[in-house]
Amino acid sequence: MMLRYFQNSVEPVLEYSDQEEFQRIVDSVRRHLQRKERAGIRLLPRRQIGKREPEAGAKMTLLSDLEGHLFSDYGAAYKAGDLEDLRDAIGDCRRCKLSSGRTHLVFGVGNPRAEIMFIGEGPGRDEDLQGEPFVGRAGQLLTDIITKGMGLRREDVYIANVVKCRPPENRNPEPDEIASCEPFLIKQVELVRPRVIVALGKFAVQSLLKTKTPITRLRGIWHDYRGIRLMPTLHPAYLLRNPGDKKLVWEDIKKVLAEIRSPSA
Ligand code: SF4
Question: Which atom of ligand 1 is nearest to the CA of 177?
Fold first, then answer.
């Protein structure tokens, strides 16, 4: 979107200009915006809801598990200074067997400084085809939760998944696939540094919290993910099959809204 706006704004001017320096600047800005779009950043952030500076302790918690990867295949990801660097570091990833069946690697999308980060399980068919998380029917429901329920734009939050490539037949990701992709998610969380993570559905919740406890006992209660508050809730795809449980998700979302609006949060 940013890139399209830029092209529409600048290219008519270029028709009347042959200044090399101007062309170089335009090309440089275009490349910059292309990197941003590849990293899922479609709009510049519009509003922050009392964004806090990161706490030193929380930063150490997030980085600690990645330090062992500094000289590994994950070294560039560990050192990434922003989401664009991280996306570049992931590249055309072949680190696990999910790479063989994907159409697109689904990195993540949204505000790189979001207050709220939604994390789902992995891309489905629509997401794999479009290269963006939560764009199918379940994604539309998540968008409704964000816009109609929370009063935010989809671009105000950040959305990612536990694994970035679609598991075949939408099966659950396997432990080795989660382990291969986990450093990328940890780094993504560290770079966005949201105040709150909303984990969507049993699989994402159990993977992030490293537990087998049923989601019915986890949801609606605050948990900790590497120093960041995490609220488990039901997956939008589950809600499509069980619309009567939407009220449970709304209870969880109200707690999230109260948390980010709280000055002491
Ligand atoms: S799921 Fe993650 S680790 Fe596996 S190929 Fe995709 S990006 Fe790489």
Answer: 4
